[in-house]
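Holo prediction — S-adenosylmethionine.
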Amino acid sequence: MKKLIRNIYNLLSISTPYFIIFNYIKNYFPNYRKKNQCLKKDKEIYQNFKSVDITKKWFTNNLYFLSKNLSTLKVKNLLEIGSYEGRSAIFFADIFRGTKISCVDTWSGSDEHENINFKSIEDNFDQNIKFLKDNQLLTKFKMTSDNFFTQNNEKFDFVYVDGDHSKDQVLKDLQNSWSVLNNNGFLLVDDYMWWYYKNLENNPASSVNIFINNNIDQISKLVIWHQVLIQKK
Ligand SMILES: C[S@@+](CC[C@H](N)C(=O)[O-])C[C@H]1O[C@@H](n2cnc3c(N)ncnc32)[C@H](O)[C@@H]1O
């Protein structure tokens, strides 16, 4: 409950529209206290991946929400901005069997990644996703998201945005992702409730709010949680 109140307070502080806050409150309760289901799913998916750091639970906490909202979707191809060790890519490969995944990452981190050895993070990624690469189900793009969008000609059924979390870059990634998303496709944004920057306006939530406001006419479904799921008309 404390977290819910803090999140609502922060959302109000950055002038989040009320319909977004109500959407979050509506989704908070069904997803709240599903920790056991999340941990069970985490174990099921990652137990064979020795290079996934099992102490890091940032993606785990979303597994119930994700499984519930994504399990019936048909996704032929997927773009992921920000892959790190491959945890989210492995999840998507599991839930969207046979989907082709494009992973974009600089493997050099951003503001929150001080003191992390990205050489070993990238090695872990390579090891974790080898089975997908060997089956031509995953392509690795080691570059910034901006560079990826400049050279890309493909359209995607699903885009996951979890790269640089600074305000301007999140907004840029969302806009670029939207333009390569097929109609009826889904955009999933991580860390909506991530309040890392002291000035609350500089966190991803501000960019997501701007993005939703700018594109509201083109959105057919919106689910606000710690991640945000948006369907394009
Ligand atoms: C939070 S991590 C991604 C976590 C991953 N999705 C998971 O669930 O395990 C963010 C990643 O974004 C990458 N990154 C940072 N800035 C980037 C940029 N401009 N373009 C592409 N990737 C970037 C970092 O190197 C880092 O690996």
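READOUT: The chain has a mean pLDDT of 94.
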